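Researcher: If convenient, please comment on what follows.
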Amino acid sequence: MNVNWHGIFPAATTHFHDDQSLDLPATLGHLDVLLEAGIDGMIMLGTVGENCSLEQQEKLEVLKATVERVAGRVPVLTGVAEYTTARACRYAADAQHAGVDGLMVLPAMVYKADSRETMTHFRAVAGATDLPIMVYNNPLAYGVDITPEMFVELADTPTLAVIKESSDNVRRITDVKNLCGDRYVLFSGVDDLVVESVLLGATGWVAGLVNAFPHESRLLWNLATAGRWEEARDVYRWFTPLLHLDTRIKLVQYIKLALRECGLGSEMVRAPRLPLAGREREEVLGIIRRAIETRPKIPVAA
């Protein structure tokens, strides 16, 4: 299907049993919840989906099952987060064969590539399939910055269609627009910068806390994109302590703990990640539980 690059694309969680084995029924069941809330696309096996903690065959199993479950209702993307360019190209081709509609491509993992190496990596992965690609720029997490000037150079690669801007610098949206015009679709990739990103021209949101709060995420997005700024600010102020959790190293554990508290899944992660413990767990639970107690009412039309 052609990807309509607009709206909320959850970075969906991958669910595990207590022994850390893949829980595919729970993973798919959670997708049903997100679809019912009216999300616009699905991104499997991103950072929140614990891509690098899954074996290759597990990844393909998740993708095939997701494509079957979603059944064309929204586009399905997969994260591409491999250690070498060759492995990323092979996985991209395998993912296309599994039926996905697009790719969210990360720089090669571990090695901190320079600009020439980074652009070569993205061009190579783009050449491995004819799928449209969301370029994931998150220098804080992955140590590689894809600058606006680099996107000018990459503009000659037609399937590089979207930028997921997660540099934590919302100025980047304006810089890319000024340098590249409408060449790329811009998505916010930072939960607690989404309203600012919409104001500056982002037309999509790769969201993390949507996994636990799908209806509230939909409400915030609808208000912001409709220009109902006062109402959006009220929801945003309620949501922001939760959205901050998406920006920390343990975002996966935090989001999965929120899932558990909302009755939408297990908090089990796969090692080296471990479920939260001690004071840290209690602090995060406090944030989540306060949000649940004070969550906004969802209008029927939202």
